[in-house]
Amino acid sequence: MQSPSHELGPPHEAMFLILPYLHLFELLSITQVCKSFRDALHHDILPWLNIVVDKPLNSRFSDDFLVKIMAKAKGRLRIIAMKNCFRITNDGLLQVITSNPHINKLYLQGCTSLTIEGVIGAVKLLTKANHRLKILAISGIYNVKIEDFQTLCHLMGINQMQMKNRKKNYYNTRCELYAFKQESDQPSIDVDICPKCGEIREVFDCPRNSCNTRIQQQRQQQNQVLMECRGCFLCVPRCEECGVCTKDDELGEAACTDILCLNCWLQLPKCSFCNKAYCNQHAYQQSLYPGGFLCSYCSFHATQSS
Ligand SMILES: [Zn+2]
Ligand SMILES: [Zn+2]
Ligand SMILES: [Zn+2]
Ligand SMILES: [Zn+2]
Ligand SMILES: [Zn+2]
């Protein structure tokens, strides 16, 4: 790579348009490209108003780091999305929320060191004085009771009707919660009371046509709606690729620990040895093999025996 010469002026204006769309690790990498980028980012507050922490930074993301990064928004932070940042504690979160009262979207999925008491404390601060918290995501946080869920809904102004009419939530698109640029008028929370086990978890709908028809028929007949395949990930096993329920179906053999319905399995490439398929998320575990690939299990045994 060419080293930037000292005659270079400030970065192209287009760069500033892109910055607010980047994840934190991308922003931090840009600050290390050259002095002019670093200075530009140091003086620009806009990229730091929406902070998304995902892989690969999540496992190292600590309270100290959180407070330091969030300080760059100078109190004007709008969105915090931290996924699986299991080192973040109530203290770190509250510190950031206290100094950034305008946050309106808070994603904390899988931040397992947070407690529900900490989350409720944060939401109380963010719904003070008519401020609206539009989105809250807390799936993966332990020991959330029905009362806690109701408290959160009450604070955010979510009523039962809104919960009922909300957009369908499909298992295979669960990660797209990060489409946080999308605006919605209704406040929303990512968890619900699972109709099967009664726990507060993320509850998924079924994208399978025949399941939807059945649910609609039940509704029309005013039967008590059974919604057999609506439920949390523990109650209703689902295909990793397409999200359909897979209870009584024949399954395809997966090389990862995920479930694959037969339809999806047929379409995915398979290990040349054992004929198992990887879901797309784990396809990186394939090792090259003439005419195809080997799954990690077969490739390990191939190296052992050669
Ligand atoms: Zn359940
Ligand atoms: Zn499938
Ligand atoms: Zn179903
Ligand atoms: Zn294999
Ligand atoms: Zn998988």
UniProtKB/TrEMBL annotation:
<feature type="domain" description="F-box">
    <location>
        <begin position="11"/>
        <end position="46"/>
    </location>
</feature>
<dbReference type="InterPro" id="IPR036047">
    <property type="entry name" value="F-box-like_dom_sf"/>
</dbReference>
<dbReference type="Pfam" id="PF12937">
    <property type="entry name" value="F-box-like"/>
</dbReference>
<dbReference type="InterPro" id="IPR017900">
    <property type="entry name" value="4Fe4S_Fe_S_CS"/>
</dbReference>
<protein>
    <recommendedName>
        <fullName>F-box domain-containing protein</fullName>
    </recommendedName>
</protein>
<dbReference type="InterPro" id="IPR001810">
    <property type="entry name" value="F-box_dom"/>
</dbReference>
<dbReference type="GO" id="GO:0005737">
    <property type="term" value="C:cytoplasm"/>
</dbReference>
<dbReference type="InterPro" id="IPR032675">
    <property type="entry name" value="LRR_dom_sf"/>
</dbReference>
